[in-house]
Amino acid sequence: MPAPRLPGRSDLRLLVRHPKTVWRVAKGYARVLCGERRPLRGAEFCVTYRCQLNCAHCLTKPLIDGQRKEMSTTQAIEAMRGLGRAGAVFVNITGGEALLRRDLFDILHGVTDSGMLVTLASNGFLIDDSVARELKRCGVSIVTLSLDGPTAAVHDASRGRAGAFDALMRAVDHLKSEDIPIWFTTILTRKNAEDGSIFDTAELAKNLGATLTLNWTYAIGRHWSKKERARLRR
Q1: In the chain, where does the domain assigned CATH 3.20.20.70 lie?
Q2: C-beta of residue 175 within 8 angstroms of C-beta of residue 143
Q3: CB 218 within 8 A of CB 182
Q4: In this structure, are residues 111 and 77 in contact, taking their beta carbons and an 8 Å threshold?
C-alpha cells in the first residue's frame, strides 16, 4: 500500500482557511496509519455536459445524449453528500460548464456544510460580480479556470470561441474581488514546450496571483486521437 502523501504548503493554507476540514484530513491519515484501506481523497463531480465553448480536447462532448437527463438538484446533493460520508476531503464540481445549471447555487448550498472542500471548475464566461459574490456566499473554496495559452489568440483558438480569453480575465478580476483563490489548469504539449509558451502561461498565472496546474495530453475529445496525442508528446 503506498504511503500517504504529506500535505504540502498549498494544502496547509487551505486547511487554515477551512478548519472544519482538518478533522476530516486527520481522520483519513489515522485510518491509513492504522492499516485500514486508504480512504477516498476527493472526486470530480460533473453536474452537466452542456457548455458554450467547443474545445477540440473536450472529454465530455462525446458523452452528450439528449435522451439522458441530468441529475435533479436533490439527486446531485445526495450524491455529493455520499462522497462526504465515504471520507472525501474535497469534491470538484465540473462540467461541461457547471454554471449553466440554474440550480447550481442550490446544489452548492446543499453541500458546503458537509465538511468537504468544495471547488468549482469553470471556463469563466458566466462569472460576473454577482456570480462571484454568490460563490463566496456558498463557501466555494477554489475556482479552477481553464487557461490554454498566454494570449487571446492561442486561448480562443483552443476554446473554439472568440472572446474566451477576455472573459477569463474578467472572471479573474471578479473572483479576486471576493478573495476566492484561483487555480488555472493548462495542458502541457510538445508545441507549447518547444516554443516556450508554457513558460509564458506560467508567468501570466504568477502575475495574476493564481496557482497553475499542468495536465498531460490524452487521447480524448473531437480531434485529440491517439495519433494526435503521440504527435503532441513526441
Answers
A1: 41-233
A2: yes
A3: no
A4: yes
DSSP state of 63: G
Cell 441529475 belongs to residue: 71
CATH hierarchy code of domain 41-233: 3.20.20.70
Which grid cell sits at 185? 489548469
The torsion defined by the Cα of 92, 136, 111 and 33, in degrees rounded to 10, comes to: 60
pLDDT at 166 over 60: yes
77-95 average pLDDT score: 89
Examine the pLDDT at 56 and tell me if it is beyond 80. no
> What whole-number distance in Å separates Cα of residue 93 and Cα of residue 46?
6
C-beta of residue 83 within 8 angstroms of C-beta of residue 91 = yes
pLDDT at 18 over 60: no
